[in-house]
Here is the input.
Amino acid sequence: MSSNRYDVTTGSSGHLSALLENAKLLYVTDAQFSEDWHSVMHSHPNLELFYCVRGIGELRMKDRVLPVGSDDMIIVNPNVEHTESSIPSNPLEYIALGISGVDLIFDPQGQHCSVLNYRESRSEIVALLRMLISEASRQPNGWDNVCQHLLVVLLSLLLRHTHFTLNIEQGLHTNKECAAARRYIDEHFAEPIDLDILANITHVNKYYLAHAFKREYGISPINYLIERRIRESKYLLEHTDYALSQIAHFLGISSSSYFSQSFRRSTGQSPTEYRKQVREAASQGSARA
Here is the structure.
C-alpha cells in the first residue's frame, strides 16, 4: 500500500482572510442575449464579474470598447459605467456575480475594468459558477453559506492571475437592501413597481427603505425608477422609430402624455425634440465623415 499525505496549514496569502471577511456575494445571474435585448450605460455600487460561457460581444464604457468572447472574465469595479452588447448570430451567454466589500487593482494601475481570458481554467470556473447557480436557484438548507464559500474559492483561483490584486473597500459598505432594490428596479423597470413591492422584495419596512435608499444614492426609489425608464427611453428614441405611445408601453408607463411630461421634467426637452436633435447630430457627423 502507498499513500501521499499533504498537510494543510495557514498559508502566507493574506488576501484569503480578507476574502473571507470582506467579500460578500450579493447576487448571481445566468443570462443569454436574445434579439429583443438592448442595454444602456449603467453602473453598480459593487464589483461585478461576468464569465462568458459562449458567444461573442463587447463591453462598452465611456472611453473604450473591449471585445469579449468565450471564457473571457469581465471584471468591472464599483461605480464604473458600462454596458454589454452581443452579436445576434452568436449570442453571449454569461454568468454574472455581484460582490460587495472588495474591488480589484489592475496591472497596469489606473484601470477600472478588465477582460481576462481563462480558457485553461474553464472547467474549474464553470463548475463553480454552475454550483452557485444551482444553490441560489434551489436554495436548500445552508445554501447562502455554500454560495459564500464557493465565492471565496472562485476568487482565490482568479487571484492566481498576475494581472490584478485584491483591494479591500474602505469606508461605508453599500446597504444590501438598497442594492437589492436598485438591482430589482434595473431588471424590472418596465413592470409596475412601487414601494410596497420593493419592501416585499427586500424584506424591510417601506419607509425605512425609502429613507435608506435616498441616503445611499441621493435619490428616492421611485425617482430612480423614473430616471431608469428615461435612460431606456433615450435608447429607444435614438435607435428605433417606435411611436411615443409604443415607447411608453414598453417602459410600463401609463400614457404617452405622462411619458412626455416625465421626459421633459428630466431632460428639459420633449421626447420628440430629443429624437430630432440626436438624429440631426448623427446625420451631421456622417456627412463630415
